[in-house]
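Not sure how to ask, but would you mind making up any protein sequence you like and the tokens describing how it folds?
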Amino acid sequence: MSATLGFISMFWCIMLFPMLHAVILDTESKSSSSPIANLTLNPRKLKLTWDSSVTVTEYSCSMHVGLHMAKKTVYNKTCMFNTELAQPIHKGALFQVQAMYNHTSYSAEVRFIPQGMNGTSVENFSCVIYNISFMNCTWKAGRNAPEDTKYFLFLKYPKEDEQECPHYIRDALGRHIACSFQDVKDIKEKVYFLVNGSSNELEIQFYDEYIDLYKIEKLTPPSNITVNCSEEQLQCTVQWKQPHLSHLEGNAAECFEYQIEIRNNANSEESSTESHTVTRRSYTFQNYNGEKKYTLQIRAKGDTCRISENWGEWSEPIEFGNPDDTVLTATIVLLLIALGTILVALVIFFLCKRYCSLKKLFSPVPQPKNKFDELFQLSDKNIQRECMDLPPTKYETEEITTVEEIK
């Protein structure tokens, strides 16, 4: 009887949930007169259903996976384990139903046994959410998986149908080893992940896992970081805003812990790094030396609330303090610009001298007319003309007689 029920349950599982390769065995109840009968399992929904020959008002159902057990009480002949209670079943699971009738305890159980060769399911499966709504999942092919193995990733939100990976990444053999999701929603939810496989050579074991999405989120760095220093008080005040989250609304200032790293950018012998952890969004840096230059970075993680407790991304480095390097850099840039300008001018000059006419390039600027100069020029011309018109002078010979007085 037990073997027959096991075969029927196996056939039903494969037809209803073809993505899982498994056998479901319905074992005999501990009492031959148990009112619990026809216990079946829907592995897709982790749902148990059964019949009862007597009226029982309360049932206890349980799920055993390794050392973990989930138990709940129901008042009808259906029991479903939601994502908060469920455990991965890729290593097998035992489901039980118990009831009391006439002061006697009755029970029935069903076993879920995965099929496939050991070492063919994916290994090192992990996912990370970044930039608020993007998610990458990676894995390695099973150590015993054939080269033609094809893996397929599905995820399922509570109360929604499963969805397959939209963008796969392949290895050198063409096998899927990673997946990229965009526009991930409801990060506060626990989601069911299933990686199934197929091959022409072997039956591939599946892998499944329940993940709280907020726990795998890589937080964005704090934003709007400002540093205000006072050389009189020898301290700097650092302020910032919390990372942006899609699943938390309102003020979540008390939900974060921040790590601040300040480096003294001196020579290798005098350089040092300070690291501090705070829960507020400001920090006062003591022992500030205005003659030194510093670099600041901040990152965050969840302290309370439903926020990842893993450190997020570092902010971009922010420099403050002695600006000597900045002045030196600006001076070098200005000198290079000046030298470049001089070189360009010299090149233009020699090209023009070689191929152009400087007179055409630098034509004289016309001057305004001077009427007095024109008047004087006209008078000079008239005088010259009158002199030219005078008749030639006649020269006559004169005889000069010298008279001497005789005494």
Observations:
- The first helix runs from residue 2 to 16.
